[in-house]
Amino acid sequence: MSPVSRGFQHLRRAPAAEEDRVPPGQHMTEGFPVLSAGPTPHTPLENWTFSVTQDGQTKKSWTWAEFRALPAETVTVDIHCVTRWSKLGTQWRGVPVDTLLKAAGYDVPYVLAFCDGGYTTNLPIGDVTDGKAWVAFDYDGGPLPPEHGGPARLLVPHLYFWKSAKWVRGLELRDHDAPGFWESYGYHMYGDPWKQQRYAGD
Amino acid sequence: METTAVRGRLTWQVATVTSVTPETGSVVTITLDPPDWLGHRAGQHLDVRLTADDGYTAERSYSIASAPGEQVAITVERLEGGEVSPYLTEDLRAGDELELRGPIGGYFVWEPADGGPLILLAGGSGVVPLRAILRHRRRSGSEVPARLLYSARTLPDVIYRGELDQGHDGAQVIYTLTRSHPSGWTGHTGRLSQALLAEAAWAAEANPLAFICGPTSFVETAAAGLVDLGYRPERVKTERFGATGGR
Amino acid sequence: MDALDGNAIGGLLIDVFGTEMTAARSTCATCGDSRPVAELVVYRQAPGTVVRCRTCGSVLMVFVRAHGAIGTDLTGLASLSQPDRP
Fold first, then answer.
1. Per-domain residue ranges for chain B?
2. Which CATH architecture group holds B112-240?
3. Is the separation of the CB atoms in B176 and B189 below 8 Å?
């Protein structure tokens, strides 16, 4: 065990009033750290599409204009990163994934989100439907900045935030759960912060 | 070449802080007395680990500011909203303990036998390992021509200014101030430009050796600029600190 | 957040390889680019550490520390070459 550094307090303790909103092993942050596995993509909006695919075929696709014409909702949620910071009361605006999947039609148990830059992450269909997930384009009252996943990212606040894939471009419908980027390097396939499911075997 | 024993380099050890000295309003130099130090090379860094009483740990890397043979020292800039740098620059005192390991690095290092002419490019706190190189050059009596091009926000932000202005045995120092400058300032202003590089850097025909350290954007601009001047890419060594200047 | 370079993971590489590796020469399995590990592009703030080719952006190395182990994936790396000890 490392010797204690006299007087060193880390910045992130949760105040007592909010402790029950912060999962075990997490600390609160006021900032919004930018974590990434690669460079920030910059896809021009005129080239941006969101697609629902299956077996290599596109079932439904939206251009940016078509996507932005869909009904959207504003939500305030707590988010939890596997690197142990939690941010409470974040405000987003986005299209519910329910809307996108219903328009495409689906009958599968899993999805794989895919993104500009090659990032992927896998989720059970039940964790992106029933009001649990959005494709978000606004954060904190303004357009989602590129470093935080803009123009649009997946938002799945009940799971660790690596599942809220930045720069999302679509969902692949799948019969089997296949590990995405971090999952294939040993992160947990599901990622429930309340069960501290950070790594495989947790 | 890397020949020192592996033991002592891999393991964390608890050093005593022997002094904490301000360099600028937001920068301090911390001298250290590690019990098991095997010496270091100019340009290397060490890793520091802080532990809170609940077991939470935070690790950072800091370039070694001193030359081989001098007492181990690091120079730390306080970053707004940082987790570690405010502690090191404001709370740490002589007599405290600091857990560290090192020295680390075999690429961004200079020995007199590596020759030159040397061009050192510093962006902000990137000057720290370059100062170690200049000190090593002076202490070893090397006659390799050397120039430091140092980009800082303002004159008070220049670290080691007294030492640099005194001259390191003929090493030229050229400043550029990017945010503001004193009235009457006759030096360069503004961010590093290709024109300033062309003026300050040795001609490519001299086969110079370049060391560039600082924020990522500074390093990439400078490195591309030197290659555009004809520098061989394998003789342009880079160390990026990230946007905020820390690692 | 800007990417760092291989210098920033000098300590991690000692943990994994048992020796200094920033001066080792890496070769990308995707594009063949060859350069010192110190010059590779490092994303350190991600869960885990991702090291990418500076030329083509392909993932060369991924390190994940979990459950008392360091998982190392070098699938994207064609080769490493480091100075031999005398």
1. 13-104, 112-240
2. 3-Layer(aba) Sandwich (3.40)
3. yes
In a domain, C46, yes or no: yes
Residue C83 lies in a domain: no
> Which residues in chain A (67-86) have CB-CB distances under 8 A to chain C?
81-83
Give me the amino acid identity at A145.
Answer: P
Residues ≥6 apart with Cβ < 8 Å to A142: none
Overall number of domains in chain A:
1
**Closest residue of C to A81, CA-based?**
C47
Q: What is the DSSP letter of B201?
A: S
Helices (H), B121-247: 127-139, 161-166, 194-200, 216-228
CATH number at residue A58: 3.90.420.10
**Distance (Å) of CA A150 to CA A105, A138, A165:** 26, 8, 11
> In chain A, what residues touch C41 (CB-CB under 8 Å)?
39
Asked if C22 lies within 8 A of B45 by C-beta distance, the reply is: no
The size of the A-B interface in CB pairs under 8 A is 41
Digit-by-digit pLDDT tens for chain C (86 residues) are 579 999 999 999 999 999 999 999 999 999 999 999 999 999 987 679 999 999 999 999 999 998 889 999 999 999 999 988 77
For residues B90 and B247, what is the distance between their CA atoms, to the nearest angstrom? 19
Q: Which helix (H) or strand (E) holds B28?
A: strand B27-33
pTM of the model: 0.93
Rounded CA separation B118/A118 (Å): 40
Shortest CA distance to B133 belongs to which of B153, B150, B119, B123?
B119
Which residue in the block uniquely carries the two structure tokens 């970053």? B79
CATH number of B13-104: 2.40.30.10
**Looking at this predicted complex, what is its ipTM?**
0.94
List the domain range (segments joined by +) for residue A181: 44-195
Q: How far apart are CA B110 and CA B211, in angstroms?
A: 9
Range of the domain at C62: 4-77
Sequence letter at residue C79: S
C55, C20, C56: which is closest to C38 by C-alpha?
C20
